[in-house]
């Protein structure tokens, strides 16, 4: 969050006198000017990103979460599926860090397993919908005409279904399972990425440097890969972080509604459902608090990272 | 302008037709509501009788056309469970959902636009920082989790009815609708506030704002007339889209609060494989979305005269 | 100056608009930006004063300060004042200042496309200007807008009045801006690069229009531009600004035919001239204007100056009278400049 006052920009706004020299003349950063040229745009983004404390904190937690998910088989104190009907609804503390659920399963182990599942689904969904969306969006944007019409009308159709409802219908059609959930989320998620990509390409296709590349006879392939994609990809890159959060919540929502993963899977949405619908014993709030906090934390940190990236891409908007 | 509306209308009709075909295939071809599944065993003879009764023995294109024809005349079919007309079921649930969506939108637009304007106009002030912090948090927290927490902590307190519901006690509608509406509104309000802030900041940098000030207009007129009309355009687009998202989100929010709306009905129908009801509700949702995005486009053209020409 | 209605009885007549030792500074992370640093000038009814300088020389900030549109903070005004008929503008409360904006002092801007609000009809924007300062009905204001559009030479004003800015061409938009600025017959018109964004043929039309309107109304025009060529035939007086200061001031003839500051010399040498029989070789000024947060020591122009010697370094040269009554320059080498210019012109 860059909320510190920045009088330089305010002063600069007053200084815009004519279009010719507006810019570095008024707010001197002599050392950085030379640097910026030698660095790539992602290096530049990273430099600004690092200064954003909230985003950096988010990134650190994201990394911790990924490490935890990878180490889950090793650090999980119990088998998340192991039931112990003699020790159900145990409160947090003692042998069970976060207590046990209605079937006597260790909640902490379940949460870890749920984390692994959530990140797996989030990442694969992101990769799937980004690959599909970026390819088709780029095709539509650059080729125009028939390809554009075809892709855009298809996205219209998919976007006409509310995200969650569409996902439920797809999972219902293909059956229960993690893989099916991913498929459903990709089917519902790619049109957004495609639209984003297409918009970027359309804007860049008419830009002067692309015209220049075209005028010296660069091939379509070279123009797209060298001149358009690197510039168009940034917003898509940012959106990919947002989309991981979206996928994590979507899976939890589906599971809460009883669609998607098998009922006994230690999945956050299932755990919440069990905590608030099936167990209605006073004082057992930890059953839904821990998994909902886990969802919250995961989406929050991904949102912080996405936010930080957005700001580092376009610092003047904050 | 007329040409623009007609072209947009044709596009909308195409999308609805394509989406319903897709839906039809998904529901009736890939999933057979009468097939045996798990421990539910249905004898083949019974299946045949049921299929005939619900018109599913005919060819698919025929079924689809029949459905479309019925849809136009307002006949949504009969539900598979209790043989009630689907139209009646939706008719009972729809006002509740409409009320929910409307109240949620009123809440989020008012809060979002006001907060966004305040944050932009008094940039870097205490209020701006506050808005930035709250929106950053609110956008990261999923509606689903907000709903869970509100339900578990606030329901049953003060005027808010207890969830899970006791079916003997009837709460007045305005107490029932509040918590789900707030749940739906929080994230959206944060989005709108942010959108409004960014858009307002951008507009305030424009030359025509300087012109307005140079005219000797008061700051209030400069912001509420010259800047507002320009900066509200992206918000209008977003609200249009968000109504669609709201209806999609209503399934989880309504289910969480056991609110008798279309979303809760859809959830129960999905659990019961009640295909005609699912088909009708999703078709309805698609129609609403397509209609809304069309209205947004037209409104957009009205707000920004530059678009009208192209 | 003769026939001014507002002569102050207690003393000599105050100029219509006077800027006295004005300083506008901005505190930034990179140091204090001295956008305007001790500038004085005045202008009277019917006069045209040109302020010429590169971008970042502080000329637009002076204009915005006159209108009271420089936000403070971050701006500070360490010294100086601005007087409209002897009344201080800087000390005036905002509410009163606002009443002057658009009625007594109006402004037109460089880019007429972005300076007009895209979502309101051109006629409504002009009518708004009228209704902000005059208590008239909507209908009367609209009628006035129609007359104004006709006066600034927009064909078919009855149709144009109901169109949006994007339906106007660049020149037409600037005419509409001028119509808006003149809606309340202001005494002073600040024109900030009014022709820079326009085609060359349109530039001349706009300048001619401004001149004609000025004659009709006896308006004082402050013409801010980076282009000496534009002001040549229109300005009565020219102030050349560099790095927040006036470096040379004089009549158009004095500036064009006997420049006494090295910077003015540089500007003229980089300008194609048609008033000279043999065209001297064009010589651009080397380098770029300094950042206003780090103005070089001594004469701010010396790093780019072909005349510079050690004499330029110790202090900032003061604006000193050179020849003639009103001609002054802030240059240590003003005599060498004069000689060099003569040689250049006659070579």
TrEMBL record, chain A:
Predominant location category: membrane
UniProt entry tagged with the keyword Cell membrane: yes
Record-annotated membrane-spanning stretches: 54-75, 117-142, 154-171, 177-197, 236-259, 286-309
Region (Disordered): 16-39
InterPro entries from the UniProt entry: BP-dependent_transpt_permease, MetI-like, MetI-like_sf, OppC_N
Keywords linked to the UniProt accession: Cell membrane, Membrane, Transmembrane, Transmembrane helix, Transport
ABC transmembrane type-1 domain location: 115-306
Biological processes, Gene Ontology terms: transmembrane transport
Membrane topology: Multi-pass membrane protein
CC terms in the record's Gene Ontology section: plasma membrane
Cellular localisation: Cell membrane
Entry similarity comment: Belongs to the binding-protein-dependent transport system permease family.
UniProt name for this protein: Peptide/nickel transport system permease protein
Source organism per UniProt: Actinophytocola algeriensis
From TrEMBL, chain B:
Membrane in keyword set: yes
Domain ABC transmembrane type-1: 94-300
An individual GO BP term: transmembrane transport
GO cellular component, as recorded: plasma membrane
Alphabetically ordered keywords of this record: Cell membrane, Membrane, Transmembrane, Transmembrane helix, Transport
Pfam families: BPD_transp_1, BPD_transp_1_N
Compartments in which it is found: Cell membrane
Coiled-coil residue windows: none
InterPro entries: BPD_transp_1_N, MetI-like, MetI-like_sf
Membrane topology recorded in Swiss-Prot or TrEMBL: Multi-pass membrane protein
Transmembrane parts of this sequence: 12-31, 100-122, 129-150, 170-196, 235-257, 277-303
Recorded family membership: Belongs to the binding-protein-dependent transport system permease family.
Name of this protein: ABC-type dipeptide/oligopeptide/nickel transport system permease component
Originating species: Actinophytocola algeriensis
TrEMBL record, chain C:
Pfam families: ABC_tran, oligo_HPY
Membrane topology: Peripheral membrane protein
GO biological process per UniProt: peptide transport
Keyword field contains Iron: no
PROSITE patterns: ABC_TRANSPORTER_1, ABC_TRANSPORTER_2
GO CC aspect terms: plasma membrane
Membership in a protein family: Belongs to the ABC transporter superfamily.
Chief place where the protein resides: membrane
Source superkingdom: Bacteria
Molecular-function annotations in GO: ATP binding; ATP hydrolysis activity
Keyword tags: ATP-binding, Cell membrane, Membrane, Nucleotide-binding, Transport
Keyword Transport applies: yes
ABC transporter domain: residues covered: 19-268
Protein name in UniProt: Oligopeptide/dipeptide ABC transporter ATP-binding protein
